[in-house]
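Q: How do we represent a protein-ligand complex in a form that can be generated token by token?
A: Start from the inputs.
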Amino acid sequence: MAIMTRAALLKGPYDIDLIEKELVCDEDGVIVKNHKMGICGSDKIFYRGKLPPKTAEFRYDPAFPFPLGHESGGTIVEVGSRVSDYKVGDQVIAFGWNNNYADYFKSKTWQLQPVPEGLNMDLASLGEPIACAMYSGLNSQVQLGDTVVIMGGGFAGQIIAQCSKAKGAHKVVVVDTLEGKLKIAKGLGTDVTVNITKEDPVAIVKELTGGTGADVVVEAAGSADSFNAASELIRHNGKFVFYSWVTEPITLNISRWHDDGLQFINTCLVHHTWQERFVWTPETLRPVITGQIDIDSLITHEFPLDQIKKAFDLADKDDTAIKIMLRP
Ligand SMILES: [Zn+2]
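Then emit the structure tokens for the protein with zinc ion bound:
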């Protein structure tokens, strides 16, 4: 049986539309009815016309017109004849680029994750970005008493900041260029916020740590300025955690990486491989289900799918838009 759906097509920079298309379930795949969808920082970069290189995770040839969307969750409405691990009615989190800005999307079963018990579908629809950020937070090696700096107060940075505080950091510092995001971080328990356009994060962190520098720096902004400030404000032998996806070459001053014996932890995505993701995702979502990490405060806007253009224009411009959601 074919299912008709509306689906987003990014025809070129700032040019997005919904098209009608027909989905036919593959023998080894399923069709999912979306509950909600999230706009990712990477989607915003695509919208502005910068498509990423093809990678192990991002399997498309980067070209317009581009079928956009990857963050969503929903309910399986059809399963292929060779699928045995899912059935109609199962609730799932999407972990693949399957043109998810749509009423329905097609997926291979390995690109899905069962929604864990106790997680509501609004949050399950953000299961992918939450799990990635929490994976970084859980693996950052933050210890009781640490001073932790998070570069970037976007959705991921805000989650990693909360996670660091909950793990026993003495001081958590969030650095961003936008006042609105820093205000939200403050409200969620961040001790010190730094607007890098007005203040020097290196001087502030040095003062905060008696000249030593941060024990852990998490890079979740993805710019050269952010990487370079992080490389300066970290202490000797400090832990440098990579999170962001930098899709263009940047110029770095990495002298201290060598001379100060920095340690590097590359957390990036929870879904480097589907096997790892299958094991880690329930662990990463557990503190969200128990309420130790506040996600609701990070969902700042919601639009119906047919206003996707409006939603993206807001994502492009608004300082306080942390996570914008779409609903079918
Ligand atoms: Zn994403």
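The two ends are 21 Å apart (CA to CA). The chain has a mean pLDDT of 95.
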